[in-house]
Design goal:
The complex is a heterodimer of chains A (about 220) and B (about 240). Chain A has about 220 residues and is mainly α. Chain A is built from eight helices and no strands. Chain A is globular and about 75 Å long. Chain B has two domains: about 150 residues, no CATH class; about 70 residues, no CATH class. Classes of the chains: A mainly alpha (about 220), B mainly alpha (about 240).
Chain lengths: ~220, ~240
């Protein structure tokens, strides 16, 4: 089948799988607390739940929208469903997907790119589920015998090292854009009082805008030459 | 029974497993769809296999980080709930913040005196409601995000490639700087985390050296470049921070 035609079929399948599973998981996550309240008859007042939720939403509420929007161009459709159900987006999903796209030399917007990033993200989800399930059963025993330097290293620096490595990979390919990808958040963070969601929006869309400027200028140059 | 005993009851594992199973099931369904697309579009079947392997292997490092953090979280909110929460959206600090907000709203501390079953329930509600935010937004609005991307790309596949790369550069630029700069001028800074600075720079430099000089000669190594760079970044941070 022609690849371009298949893209519509692919997108439809993504929505058919992703939408119900993400919504269903939002619902099933309440099963334990409903059981707790019913069996032990400890229903808290709605007011108490709402005020706990309000405190949490002040800190994270903007991310519910800002993160899916900002990450979309990197994750694509299947990647968005998978990543926002399984989490660990910055430290696992995007790094794995972008490395896989790179190694397999898949071009953005093709069905191969969709398949490759989906498979890489699914692979990383399987690893993550194995890790959390193992932690549940043997975690305490294993951590107690690991040397502190190993647990500290993984706990403190694994994310930062992955963030840096993934950035380095992109910087190699788009060095000019990468300079701005660092400069914008440095300015935002040095100010110190901007909320995190605004810093993400400014950085991602600022960097995309810079990318657009370079792209337009270079296309014009190429057209003249 | 105290709250942790109840949180760790065998039945809680069963009740928490529904959500973990949905996450696994979703991944399996997407693998099946990807395999079907591979066949119908005549993609070399080795390519998706390689991609899957890259995801599986590259995630080992960060997953070990999750493993260790989860052991800590289990002592605060119990095993089953930690398992559920860290298998889906919301990293450990996010979940701890939501659970703590449950206690704060009731005027007590997490696991402290007066942390009754009723307040445990408030903590659990806060975590579930918070996670539902991302799940419902993506569950409902993802097709609209796709339309937005189509609009922004304007059907220009070259620009789509640049846009995706620029988006990732922005995301990781933010994640890097966010972990390095801890305080700005207007909130008592500037202050930075030396350890994270070293981890970011060492990870980036290692990846760039691998990508520029090593993997062009040894393509097989490309699959492991992220894992190697991560270990290098962690080791450098431990040695020099």
């Amino acid at each position: 089948m022609e690849n371009n035609n298949y893209m519509e079929t692919w997108k439809k399948s993504c929505v058919r799988i992703g939408s119900p599973t993400n919504i269903l998981a939002a619902v099933t996550a309440f099963i334990p607390v409903i059981y707790l309240c019913t069996v032990y008859d400890c229903w808290p007042s709605a007011q108490l739940i709402l005020s706990a939720w309000a405190l949490t939403a002040i800190a994270f509420g903007a991310f519910y929208i800002v993160e899916p929007v900002s990450y979309y161009a990197s994750l694509g459709m299947s990647g968005t469903y998978l990543s926002f159900l399984s989490g660990n987006i910055g430290n696992m999903r995007v790094p794995c997907a972008s490395l896989a796209l790179d190694v397999t030399e898949s071009e953005a917007g093709t069905i191969q790119a969709e398949v490759v990033s989906t498979m890489a993200i699914c692979g990383s989800i399987i690893t993550n589920l194995i890790a959390t399930t193992a932690a549940a059963f043997v975690g305490t025993a294993i951590v107690s015998v690991l040397p502190a330097v190993v647990t500290d290293g993984l706990k403190l620096y694994a994310s930062a090292a992955i963030f840096g490595a993934t950035f380095g990979n992109f910087a190699l390919k788009k060095p000019k854009i990468a300079i701005f990808g660092i400069l914008i958040p440095v300015v935002c963070k040095l100010i110190g009082t901007l909320p995190a969601w605004l810093t993400i929006l400014l950085t991602v869309f600022g960097t995309v805008l810079i990318g657009r400027l370079f792209y337009v200028v270079e296309s014009k140059k190429a057209a003249k030459a | 029974m105290d709250y942790l005993q109840i949180s760790n009851l065998p039945i809680m594992w069963v009740l928490c497993s529904f959500t973990v199973i949905i996450a696994a099931l979703q991944a399996l369904l997407f693998i099946r769809t990807a395999n079907k697309a591979t066949k119908e579009c005549n993609i070399n079947p080795e390519i998706p296999k390689q991609a899957f392997r890259i995801g599986l292997v590259s995630a080992i490092g960060p997953a070990l980080g999750v493993f260790i953090v989860m052991v800590g979280l289990m002592s605060a909110i119990g095993g089953p709930m930690s398992w559920l929460r860290l298998s889906i959206i919301g990293a450990a600090p996010t979940e701890l913040a939501a659970a703590t907000n449950g206690a704060t709203a009731a005027g007590v501390t997490l696991g402290g005196e007066g942390y009754t079953l009723e307040i445990l329930a408030v903590s659990w509600f806060a975590m579930a409601l918070n996670g539902a935010g991302w799940l419902l937004v993506t569950g409902v609005a993802t097709p609209s995000l796709e339309k937005l991307r189509e609009k922004l790309s304007g059907g220009d596949s070259h620009w789509l490639g640049v846009m995706s790369a620029a988006c990732s550069i922005g995301i990781f630029g933010y994640l890097n700087i966010n972990s390095i700069i801890t305080k700005g001028f207007l909130n008592g800074g500037p202050a930075i985390s030396n350890g994270n600075l070293i981890a970011v720079v060492a990870g980036a430099v290692c990846m760039m050296i691998l990508g520029k000089f090593v993997t062009p000669k040894v393509p097989r190594l490309a699959e492991y470049s992220l894992g190697i760079s991560m270990l290098f970044g962690i080791a450098a941070a431990l040695l020099f921070a």
